[in-house]
Design brief:
Layout: H1 9-37, H2 40-63, H3 70-93, H4 98-132
Length: 143
């Protein structure tokens, strides 16, 4: 009995696009609606949808035996930076209500915790640490 073939990358791309089109935009809509109505629970529903999209993306990556592509990682980090700058700008000008403030902090906390959780599940704790820690070539010799 032969192993089933791994689907092509165009199928993966289509699945990832479909996941983010549904969960990502729904999460963004709920998040923005929560900000506009000062409703923390509505914002929390948006954050949950964004986390569900991220989790579904990880599942798709596992099915296709791949990780995040460089473009996907750059888009995620860039989006995080833009949202962080917008949040800091709103905080600095005093334009955030307490609901908006806590919604933003919740979003950043969840996204910041998501990165080490993803790395530890993808590479294991030792492998995740070795992704950041690089030992110099001459560290094996004693001084």
């Amino acid at each position: 009995m032969s192993k089933p073939a791994i689907p092509t990358t165009s199928e993966r791309d289509l699945l990832v696009f479909a996941i983010w089109a549904v969960l990502g935009f729904a999460g963004l809509c709920f998040l923005l609606e929560g900000f506009s109505r000062d409703a923390y629970l509505v914002s929390l529903a948006g954050i949950a949808a964004i986390v569900a999209g991220f989790a579904a993306h990880i599942v798709i990556n596992a099915i296709f035996a791949t990780g995040f592509r460089p473009g996907e990682a750059a888009l995620g980090i860039g989006t995080f930076g833009v949202i962080a700058l917008a949040f800091i700008g709103g905080w600095a000008t005093g334009g955030l209500s307490m609901s908006d403030y806590w919604s933003g902090l919740t979003l950043f906390a969840v996204l910041a915790l998501g990165m080490p959780i993803y790395l530890s599940t993808r590479y294991g704790l030792r492998g995740a640490f070795s992704r950041f820690h690089i030992r110099p070539a001459d560290s094996d010799t004693a001084p």
